[in-house]
Amino acid sequence: MDSTIYGLDLAKRVMQLHWVDMGTGEIHRKQLRRRSLLEFFANRGPGIVAMEACGSAHYWARELRKLGHEVRLIAAQFVRPFVKTNKTDAADAAAIWEAVQRPDMRFVAVKSVDQQSVLALHRMREQLVKIRTMQINAIRGLLYEFGADIPQGRQKGEKTIPQVLEQLEDQISKMTLDAMRGQLERLKALDRDIADIEKSLALWEKDQEAVSRLMAIPGVGLLTATAIVATVGDMKAFRSGREFASFLGLVPRQSGTGGRVRLLGISKRGDTYLRSLLTHGARAVVNCQIRNRSPWIDRLLSRRPHNVAVVALANKMARTIWALLAKERTYDPRYQGIMMAA
Fold first, then answer.
1. 36 found inside a domain
2. Which residues lie closer than 8 Å to 189 by C-beta, 6 or more apart?
3. 198 and 219 share one domain
4. What is the pLDDT of residue 293?
5. Do both 86 and 188 map to the same domain?
6. Is residue 106 part of a domain?
């Protein structure tokens, strides 16, 4: 390999660099301040820069690519086995340098600014949803101490709580009632913030033809489609639909020895957010089977538990998503029947 390989351990302020001189074989270790990192690589010839796929890694990858370097991002769990001694910045940089040279190493695709912007919207929405759930559960628990039975579910709860507060006006002090009503206003503000983010995602969806094609799949909505397109980017990076499903943690774990392999539960590796979106979408499809019958799901439910069928459908949805994006096709619900007839 003619290009110089650099192992770069990222941090907020001080970066650690490890590389080997191709001509002399001399090992170099160097600490760089954040402000000096790009200046160092600007004065070096084009090479291969390997980094862990951690915080700010995609930003530095884009900046180093502008300088003509090839960037390879490695998942942190694939670097850890190559750390020979105690964990230090120098040991991590050396481990990254060694891991990137493995012929079977898998790399993380570098995300663009547009992709990271959309994912930032998803992260903010996810946090707001958690805060909203915590808020309404707290109100439900506080009112339960005064004998109020708030029904389960966010929408039912938001409709019932104002009525309950009116009924308890004679029992609860005014300052407590005012505080409760203030919490309700905060819930409405959270609803507006979540709706605004979803509107922004809908505007982005209009510019992405791939998102529209994915939304034709039953169980795939705006959130799932935009999150997948923004996270994956080029679906051709995966060799098959099963590899994409494995990336999402929707395939069985394997345990075996002596030629005997046992299949366990799903691995739950990869992106938790994408896996949960696909699972919730699959659960919605399975629960709607009374109105929209699917022979494949009916046969599966007849011999396996409900949650197993949900995960199996999520796996099938992941494979379908890979086929649509990697082969640039549109969703056709009759595709399997047409292929079997052919």
1. yes
2. none
3. no
4. 61
5. no
6. no
Co-location of 54 and 88 in the same domain: yes
**Full domain range(s) for residue 240:** 210-341
Confidence band of 342 (pLDDT split at 50, 70, 90): very low
107 occurs within a structural domain = no
Question: The tokens 């709706």 sit on which residue?
Answer: 195
End position of a domain, from candidates 174, 190, 207: 207
Q: Is 254 in the same domain as 187? A: no
* SS3 readout for the chain: CCCCEEEEECCCCEEEEEEECCCCCCEEEEEEEHHHHHHHHHCCCCCEEEEECCCCHHHHHHHHHHCCCEEEEECHHHHHHHCCCCCCHHHHHHHHHHHCCCCCCCCECCCCHHHHHHHHHHHHHHHHHHHHHHHHHHHHHHHHCCCCCCCCCHHHHHHHHHHHHHHCCCCCCHHHHHHHHHHHHHHHHHHHHHHHHHHHHHHHHHHCHHHHHHCCCCCCCHHHHHHHHHHHCCHHHCCCHHHHHHHCCCCEEEEEECCEEEEEEECCCCCHHHHHHHHHHHHHHHHCCCCCCCHHHHHHHHHCCHHHHHHHHHHHHHHHHHHHHHCCCCCCCCHHHHHHHC
Determine the longest span between alpha carbons in the chain, in angstroms.
87
pLDDT beyond 60 at 340 = no
The 10 Å Cβ neighbour count of residue 263 is 11
pLDDT band at 255 (very low <50, low <70, confident <90, very high): confident
Query: Are 225 and 334 members of one domain?
Result: yes
* Domain assignment present for 226: yes
Please indicate, yes or no, whether residues 283 and 315 belong to a single structural domain of this protein. Answer: yes
d(CA 206, CA 225): 12
Cα(200)–Cα(223) distance, integer angstroms: 11
- Flag whether the pTM goes above 0.70: yes
198 lies in the same domain as 217 = no
Domains identified in the chain, total number: 3
Residue 222's CB: how many other CB atoms inside 10 A?
15
